[in-house]
Structures are given as C-alpha cells and as structure tokens.
Amino acid sequence: MIQMTGIQKSYSSGFVKTVVLRGIDLEVNSGEFVSIMGPSGSGKSTLLHIMGLLDSSNKGEYVFDGEAVHKMRERKRSEFHKNNMGFVFQSYHLIDELTVYENIETPLLYKKVSGSDRKEMVGAMLDEFDLTEKKDLFPHQLSGGEQQRVGVARAVIIKPRVILADEPTGNLNSTQGEQVMNLFTQLHGDGTTIVQVTHSETCAGYSKRIVHLLDGEVVKDEAV
C-alpha cells in the first residue's frame, strides 16, 4: 500500500540546516499494524506527517496504492488525504466549540455527505466507541481518554485506508491508553491498516511490526 523510497527532509533557518530524515526506505502493506519508534529527534513524527500528507519531503518518492503522491499538486494532495487517511493526534485536536457529535461529524461535512447519511454514520460511531451519552458534551467536559476516543471515531468515520496515529496515548493514563490501544486492535482486526508513532514499548506491543529510527534513518525493522 505505502512505498517510500529515499525520503529526505531538512529545515533551514538562516545559515543553519537541520537534517531530519536521511533517505528513508519504508513499505507498509495493506492490513499491517506498524509502530515507529525511536528517541526524541529521530524523525518519527516528521516521517508520519509526510506519510499522512501533512508535510512533504525535500527528496524521495512516495507511492500510495499505485498513486505517486510526491508528484501531486496541493489540491489533489488535500483531497487524497481526506479520502484515504485518518489521523489521530497526541493532543486530540478536537474543535473546542463543537460537541462530541459535531466533532465526529466534521469529516463528513468536508466530503459533502448528505444529512441523513451523516446522522446514521455518526450514530454508529457513537455506539461503537461508547460515546452516545456524551454526544452533546464539549471537549472540555470530557476526560483525556474520552477525548481520544472522539479523536479515533472522527478519524475512522470516513473508513480510511490507513490510520496514522502520532503518540496516541501520550497524554493518557495507563487505563485510558489501554482502552485506545484496544480500539486500534479491534480496527486492525477489521482490516484497517494502522501506523503509529510511539515511545511506549507497551503500545508498540499491540502492533505486529516495529520500525526503529535513529538520527533520521531506519536502523531496525522487526516483526513482533
């Protein structure tokens, strides 16, 4: 599904150039559950953001299911992201002014899904993620674990080809984190491709493969 070849990323500030990724080669097959690990500054989140089209590489090729993503213009990249990828963030990225229901509904509005279909789809997500009783609450009225469940529900409501999760349990306690990882396990069991960045050996243990980064390079790629 995902083929990344020679992915390089660097930033320049004045006369200082910071190299983040040094020619990453990575493949992710459809239906895999992959964890990307490494110390802070190893390039994990940058790689995930390039994979999720939230950032772009300076050099290299990125092919997603036969589509040359690295050659796409900005508008097509945005459409491709919305149609194929669900992103889950460490800090939830919920919209404070919207209720749980409205936050989960937001991706469907972007896709111009009809009102009746939206109601049915959001209702199904509320049931699946045990959020029905919370649907009229705002993010600040929820626990961290509940907010992240809303974030996951919002990510999967469009039935994305791949879920990309950046430290999804980083702001949660161990019980909340276990709940989120169990959700990912369930989604993976249903056939969803998942790629997560994590510092946690426990969270990585839920995946089937771990890719280790160090100083912007893949130093180990192992089955779990």
Largest sheet: 6 strands, mixed
Stretches where pLDDT falls below 50 for ≥5 residues? Answer: none
Output the structural class.
alpha/beta
CATH class assignment? Alpha Beta
Overall number of domains: 1
Element pattern in H and E = EEEHEEHEHHHEHEHEE
Mean pLDDT: 94
The name of the CATH architecture is: 3-Layer(aba) Sandwich
The CATH topology name reads Rossmann fold
Described by the principal axes of the CA atoms, the overall outline is globular
* Number of extended strands: 10
Helicity, as a percent range: 25-40%
Evaluate the radius of gyration: 18 Å
Task: Give the strand order of the largest sheet, numbering strands 1, 2, ... along the chain.
Answer: 6-7-8-3-9-10
Share in β-strands: 25-35%
Taking the alpha carbons of the first and last residues, their distance comes to 20 Å
Structure description:
The mean pLDDT is 94. This protein is 34% helix and 29% strand. The protein has 7 helices and 10 strands. It is an alpha/beta fold. The strands form 2 sheets. It has a 6-stranded mixed beta sheet with strand order 6-7-8-3-9-10, sandwiched between helices. Strands 2-1-4-5 form a 4-stranded antiparallel beta sheet, covered by helices on one side. The protein has one domain (2-223): P-loop containing nucleotide triphosphate hydrolases (Rossmann fold, 3-Layer(aba) Sandwich). It is globular and about 50 Å long.
